[in-house]
Amino acid sequence: MHNKEIKTMDFWSLLNTYSIEIPKIQRDYAQGRESEKTNIIRNNILEAFKKAIKNGEKLNLDFVYGTVTTDNKLIPLDGQQRLTTLFLLHWYLASISGNLSKQNKEIFLKFTYETRLSSRRFCEALVNNNLSIDDSKKLSLQIMDNSWFYFTWKKDPTIKAMLTMLDTINVKFKGEIEFWKKLTTTNLVEFEFLPLDKFNLTDELYVKMNARGKALSDFENFKSWLDEKLEEKTTESFKKEWSLKLDTVWTDLFWRNDNEDFSIDEEMINFFRGMAMFSYVEKREVSNENKKYFEKRIGDLDDLEKYVSNEEFENIFFEEDNDVVFSKINYFLDFYSDNENLILRLLKKINFWKDEEANLFLKFIQKPTFPQRVLFFGLFKYILKNSDNFENKESEVVRFFRVLRNLVINSDVNASSLKNILISVNNLVETEDILIYISNENLKLPGFSGSQTTEEQLKATLILQNLDWENEIIEVENHLLFKGSIDFLLPEKENSLLDKFILRKNAAMILFNENGVNLGKECNLLGRSMLAFGLDLIRDYEIWLGGKWHQYWKEYLQNKNTNLYILNTIDLLLDQKIEKFTEILESNIYKIAEEENNIPKWKLILLKNPGLFNYTCYGRVKKDWRGVNLYEQQKFNANANAILIENNRNEVITYFIEKLGFKLKYQNVNRCGKFYTGDDIILLKEGTTLIFKREIVKVKIKDLDFEKEYDFTKGVEYFLPELENNFKQLDFTIL
């Protein structure tokens, strides 16, 4: 390698020489990280920039490695974050000093992104649109307030991180208009640029070269500290064995579960953060006085963007001055490393509804949710308790994790409930036979949903009475919508006919799919059937009947006040041919609508007009001071698009249009056939204006002093004669 190939350059010179195309922004920018550590780094580097520029001191930012293409495009393989920060700083200084000229804009536009289109567009907009920066306001808010700033950019993690950096730049550099000239003419902030293509090398070189002098990762820092603590707190043999396995067999385990970013430091630190969370929760008692602090500490450990110091790890892991925690971790990692294939094979016998969810270890060391943490905690504890003869406990392992899966997915698992849930998991692990243990009618599992616990008790009892129940229960539990919660299909008594359960199960699995209703969703067949069987406005306020969002159907299935109507619908389909399902349900709906007395007007309209429920359109029924309305699914409070269904306004309007030749003033109010949206519907005909409100119609005649209101709620025949009579008196015969 020749030294002459290494160029000392500042950013502006680099941008004048090459077009810079960022292939993948570094972690802090890619994830929009806002950890305490990131804030410190951001402030420190900008402070260093400011000091160098202000005092005329040279600042060298270390190497930037990159590949230069034949069309003079630089693709940096390292230093992307530094380059992005320098781009933002140069743009800011050019803006406040009036140097964002056409020529300089052309230079700025040479900085772009290869893979992140939104980031590329944002940088282009930032450069092309001159921004008059107001120092009294937050710069990010000023930028977001412009018409060229897309709303969706607010959710882009890279743009969020750049906006945060710009806010910090604004605080530190506001008013420093002379800095632009200093920064672009004196080469105060420089770095060594190494074009790797000159040596016919790939980005693999940067991995090796960059190892020198690079700041330690969070895990490397933690590992160094832990080595010292284990040497102090444990035996020499334990520490020696630990260090050896952490660098060999356990490293292999983490590499097998890498997220393909060619580094396992993140996975390793995530593992120990998770173990620290378990240790913290298990060791501490919770009271009303410390509950908020307790939950905050759990939240800090769960937030992988938040920095955890070695001192905090020490307070959690070594507060009792022993090595019990690390002995358990040591035992688990040994067993898991040796038996990974066996464990995964058994877990895959349990349907976690997504194939990758079965790898509980993988999920735990990536970016786990609280439910995924609890499932791994169950695996960790189960292995510690049952590692002996583990291979011969296949049926018990599968049963245990099926029950745990059901409890976790159907409970509210969060920082508030975690303490009780871990206690319950520990109790479950201690049992030798999960079905016998959980079938106990007096069983309590604090933290987990009480209704799901009761359901698991009933299912365990049914299986113990007759093993034929097990496969049937498992099949319907594995449904992607039900996800272990099948109480709506289960019998009320322990001794029940299995045959009837199978028929109900088969019908339910056809009626629903993972997104909600599978059958007749374009006309809301199930929702209308529930209405026919008696479903009413919940708390006299509203009900959701659309077929688009699965979470609403999931809630209805788990709610005993609503799942009764679903079960009534299912029972109509038992032992029927699939192709007859729609016909059977529609026939029953119309039969009830015609034969039942005292059905309110709004419900009759919904029962008899399936077209109203196009699943891409309407689905929410709400009662307020305006009356009962049908709303679009995604515009719950958009009254302009709501259809009044409480009275016969729609029929009266249709009569005036079809029979009397009136025209809608605004055609867009006509929805789903002969139904009309909004508070006021206006009809016109030859100088006559009809304004239909909620319960009255205002009649106006152009050029005549005539305006009157009529109550139309009882129907056309009740107010049309009076209206015609008034017109005749005015010698006005438009009707």
Structure report:
With 735 residues, the protein is of the alpha+beta class. The chain has 32 helices and 19 strands. The strands form 5 sheets. It has a 6-stranded mixed beta sheet with strand order 1-6-3-4-2-5. It has a 5-stranded antiparallel beta sheet with strand order 13-16-17-18-19, covered by helices on one side. The chain is flat and about 100 Å long. The termini are far apart.
Distinct helical segment count: 32
Tell the overall outline: flat
User: What percentage of residues falls in helices of 4 or more residues?
Assistant: 40-55%
User: How far do the termini sit from each other?
Assistant: 97 Å
Number of strands: 19
State the strand order across the main sheet.
1-6-3-4-2-5
Strand content is 5-15%
Largest sheet: 6 strands, mixed
Structural class: alpha+beta
Mean pLDDT: 85
Briefly summarize what is shown:
51% of the residues lie in helices and 11% in strands.
Structural features:
flat, single chain, 51% helix, alpha+beta, 19 strands, 735 residues
Describe the protein's topology:
Blueprint: E1 7-10, H1 11-17, E2 19-22, H2 27-30, H3 36-55, E3 59-68, E4 73-76, H4 80-96, H5 102-108, E5 111-113, H6 117-128, H7 139-144, H8 157-173, H9 179-185, E6 189-195, H10 204-209, H11 218-233, H12 236-247, H13 249-256, H14 265-283, H15 291-302, H16 310-317, H17 324-347, H18 360-365, H19 370-386, H20 394-409, H21 418-430, H22 434-438, H23 450-465, H24 468-477, H25 498-511, E7 512-513, E8 516-517, H26 525-532, E9 542-544, H27 550-558, H28 560-571, H29 581-595, H30 601-608, E10 618-624, E11 627-632, E12 643-644, H31 649-658, E13 663-664, E14 670-671, E15 675-676, E16 681-685, E17 688-692, E18 696-701, E19 706-711, H32 716-729
Parallel strand pairs: 2-4, 2-5, 3-6
Antiparallel strand pairs: 1-6, 3-4, 7-8, 9-10, 10-11, 11-12, 13-16, 14-15, 16-17, 17-18, 18-19
Helix pairs in contact: 3-8, 4-8, 11-14, 12-13, 13-17, 14-15, 19-20, 19-21, 24-25, 26-28, 26-29
